[in-house]
Amino acid sequence: MTIDSHQHFWIFDPVRDSWITPEMEAIRQDFLPGDLIPVLETNGIDGCVAVQADQSDLETEFLLQLAEANDEIKGVVGWVDLRSPELYDKLEVYSQFELLKGFRHVVQGEPDGFLSQPEFLRGVGQLAAFDFTYDILVYPHQLKEAYDFAKKLPGVRFVLDHLAKPYIKRGELEPWKNDLKLLAQLPNVSCKVSGMVTEADWVKWNKSDFVPYLDVAFEAFGAKRLLFGSDWPVCLVAAEYASMKEIVTDYLNSFSVTERKDVMGENAIKFYNLD
Q1: Span 167-178, mean pLDDT?
Q2: CA nearest neighbour of 220 among 187, 266, 197
């Protein structure tokens, strides 16, 4: 089974979704399952994981409603206040929803030191009791902090989103390369091969631009801990779905059939416990 491990849905709200700036005009509109499912079918994708884009309980409920109504959505990564003193009770309630697989907080928008906050560490640590996962969304300068964070919580299954958004447009590898390899030393951390086109030159990127970054990711995590993801519809500011997918599938041509299947779906199925 081929799985897109990372995509989003929203009913566009210019105030709530202020991160979608005017230069991102292509995605300043609604994106719902009816828009994505034909694209998945055209590109040979059997299912997807819907990831939160808004930090609210309503977002989690919205995604779960979409997942319940559309078989192609195999799992949801929602949002919950991980610093709340009532978190455990909330997780008990959420554990009743089979399609809810984990949670994410947009740490890339938080100040340095956020991941080391005792309340946040305690909250993320509670996810393990319910077999929930946690998606790490950070920028390159936050990777060392992410390493310290994940190392303190060996019982939690983590996945790094978008390779931590390396500076592909500028062609920079260091210190991202070393910091990514450091994080990859932790066996409880996987990584999504996703979000790359939006870190490149939106107009003039070439497939070759991504090869050095993919080389690092595969050297660091190996084919058993990498998950393909589209980051649709965000990717549309720089590439159509087919072009974005091709970057990864072309790179995988030299890999074994088993390794290709792992990256393009099997790893996502195992990580998120998808049916």
Answers
A1: 97
A2: 187
Q: CATH number of the domain at 3-272, out of 1.10.10.10, 3.20.20.140, 1.10.3720.10, 1.20.120.530?
A: 3.20.20.140
Based on DSSP, count helices (H) and strands (E) in the chain, helices before strands. 10, 8
Q: Taking each helix axis as running N to C, give the angle between helix 176-184 and helix 143-151, from 0 to 180 degrees, rounded to the nearest 10.
A: 10
Closest CA to 36 of 185, 223, 233: 233
Alpha-carbon distance 245 to 81, whole Å? 33
Q: Where are the domains of the chain?
A: 3-272
Predicted confidence (pLDDT) per residue in 126-142, tens digit: 999 999 999 999 999 99
pLDDT tens, position by position, 59-118: 999 999 999 999 999 999 999 999 999 999 999 999 999 999 999 999 999 999 999 999
- Angle between helix 211-221 and 241-251 (nearest 10): 60
Q: Does the pTM exceed 0.85?
A: yes
pLDDT above 90: residue 188: yes
Separation of alpha carbons 104 and 81, rounded Å = 10
* Predicted confidence (pLDDT) at residue 275 exceeds the cutoff of 90: no
Q: What phi, psi does 135 have (nearest 5°)? A: -90, 125
- Supply the DSSP symbol for 144: H
The dihedral sign for the CA sequence 164, 55, 272, 113: positive
pLDDT, the chain, mean: 97
What is the pLDDT, as a whole number, of residue 21?
92
d(CA 144, CA 96): 34
- For 272, the token pair is 């998120």
Question: Which residues are CB-neighbours of 166 under 8 A, at least 6 positions away?
Answer: 140, 172, 173, 176, 180, 199, 213
